[in-house]
Design brief:
This protein has nine helices and four strands, in the order ααβααβαααβαβα. The chain is α+β, with helices and mostly antiparallel strands. Belongs to the nitroreductase family.
C-alpha cells in the first residue's frame, strides 16, 4: 500500500509560501493514498449545516489530462502537474444529510431525536429553496474546501494553482458530468518546476472597514 510521510509545516509558513504555480515538474507523481489524505484533510472545511456539498473529480491519468488540455485552453499545467482536481458542487447534496447526521449520532454528538428533526428541517428547507439560492450557498462551501485543499497541498510539500479558465460545457461533456453537479474550479496539484511569480497584497487599511462602510 502506498503511504504518505510528510513533515508538518507551520501554518503561517504555509499561508505565506503558497503561491499559484503554473510551471510543474512533469516527472513528479503523487501517491493515490496521499491524494486521498489531502482530500480528506481538505474536507475538514466548514459548510452550511454540515451538508458538505463538495465533490472532487481527480484526473491523474496522462491520457485524460491530454484530453482535458484543450478544454482548459491549453494551459500547460493541465498536463505537467501530477493531478488535476475538478471541484464540483452537488446541488442534490442535501439528500445525503441523513447519512451525515446518522454518523454524528454514532459518534455521540447528538441524539437520534435531534438528528431526525434536523434532517426533516434541512430537507424541507432545500426542497422549498430556489435552485439559484441553493447553488449560491453550495458554491460558497465549495470555495471554502478549495482554499483548504490548496493549503493542505502546500503543507504536504506540493504546489497548486486554481483555474477558472476552461470551457465548462466541454468539461461536462468530456467527463459525462451529470447536471446535478456544477463545476466550481480546476486545481492543478504538483511540484513547482520553477518558482511562482511573486505577488503583492493591498494593505489591510485599504480593504477593511470598522463598524461601518465609509463613503
Amino acid at each position: 500500500m502506498e503511504t504518505s510521510i510528510f513533515k508538518e509545516t507551520d501554518f503561517f509558513t504555509v499561508i505565506r509560501d503558497r503561491h499559484a504555480v503554473r510551471k510543474y515538474d512533469p516527472n513528479v507523481k503523487i501517491p493515490v493514498q496521499e491524494l486521498k489524505e489531502m482530500l480528506s484533510q481538505a474536507t475538514l472545511a466548514p459548510s452550511g449545516a454540515n451538508v458538505q456539498p463538495w465533490r472532487f473529480l481527480v484526473i491523474d491519468d496522462p491520457a485524460l489530462k491530454e484530453k482535458l488540455l484543450p478544454v482548459a485552453f491549453n494551459q500547460e499545467q493541465t498536463v505537467t502537474s501530477a493531478a488535476m482536481v475538478v471541484v464540483l458542487a452537488d446541488l442534490e447534496a442535501y439528500k445525503e444529510v441523513d447519512k451525515i447526521y446518522s454518523q454524528a449520532v454514532e459518534a455521540g454528538y447528538m441524539t437520534g431525536e435531534t438528528k431526525d428533526q434536523l434532517v426533516t428541517n434541512l430537507t424541507n428547507h432545500y426542497t422549498k429553496s430556489s435552485p439559484d439560492k441553493t447553488k449560491s450557498a453550495f458554491l460558497i462551501d465549495a470555495g471554502l474546501v478549495s482554499m483548504q485543499l490548496m493549503l493542505v497541498a502546500k503543507a504536504h510539500g506540493y504546489d497548486t494553482v486554481p483555474m477558472a479558465g476552461y470551457n465548462a460545457q466541454q468539461l461536462k461533456e468530456l467527463f459525462d458530468i451529470p447536471d446535478r453537479y456544477t463545476d466550481v474550479m480546476l486545481i492543478a496539484v504538483g511540484k513547482a518546476l520553477e518558482p511562482a511569480h511573486p505577488t503583492v497584497r493591498l494593505p489591510v487599511e485599504d480593504v477593511t472597514f470598522w463598524n461601518g462602510i465609509s463613503k
